[in-house]
Amino acid sequence: MGISFGETLRKYRMEKGISQQELAQKMFVDRSSVTRWESGTRLPDAVMISCIADCLDLDVSLLLKPAGYENEKINVIVVDDEEIILSGEIDVLRDVMPEASISGFQKGSDALSYAKRERVDIAFLDVMMGSTRTGLDLCRELLEINPLTNVIYLTAYADYALDAWKTGASGFLLKPITAEDVRTQFSLLRHAIRGG
User: Looking at the structure, do residues 116 and 175 belong to the same domain, yes or no?
Assistant: First the structure.
C-alpha cells in the first residue's frame, strides 16, 4: 500500500488546506510522522488510519484507495454459505466502508463468475463452505483471476489459520466479525486498493 497511500493522504490533506504540521498536531504526533506517511517510507497502523480519516473528515475507504481513483468504488465481495451469517457480515462491512460496492455470495462458483467480470479489491471468504470448494481453494482461484485481490478469511475455527496463511491471503478473522476487526485488517492488506 506504501507510496499509493502516501500520495492519497497528501492529496486529501492539501484539498482540505491542512499543512503537515496542522495534521500532526490534530493527531498528537510529530510532523516527521506525517512526512514519512506521505513519502511512503512508513505506514500508519489501522488505528492511525482511522484517526487520519476523522481529522480530514473522510471515509476511511477513501484513504485506502490510491490518488486518482477517487471516483471509483472499492469493490468488495463476501462469500459465506450461511445466508444469515452472510447478511450480518455484509452489514458490518457496509458500516465500515459505506462508499464501497459490496456483493455477497453463498456459492464460490458465483463469486468466481463475478470476479471474472468485475475487479475485486477485497474478498472476505468463509474457510469452510459445506461444499467441495473451500475458501482456501476459492482464494487460489480468485488470485489466478486477479493476483492483486486482497483476501481475508472468515471462520469460526482458529485451527485453519496456518493453512490460510499459505494461500497468499492478507488476513484472517474469527466470526462473528466486528467493525473494529475489519478496520484492523486494513493495515495488513498486501496490495493497494486501486480502480480499473
Answer: yes
Cell output for 163: 493453512
**Which of 167, 170, 196 lies closest to 182 in space, CA to CA?**
170
Residues 56 and 142 grouped into a single domain: no
Residues in the chain: 196
| Same domain, residue pair 144 and 169 | yes
Range of the domain at 170: 75-186
- Threshold 0.85, pTM exceeds: no
The pLDDT confidence band at residue 4, using thresholds 50, 70 and 90, is low
In a domain, 17, yes or no: yes
The span from the CA of 174 to the CA of 114, in Å, is: 25
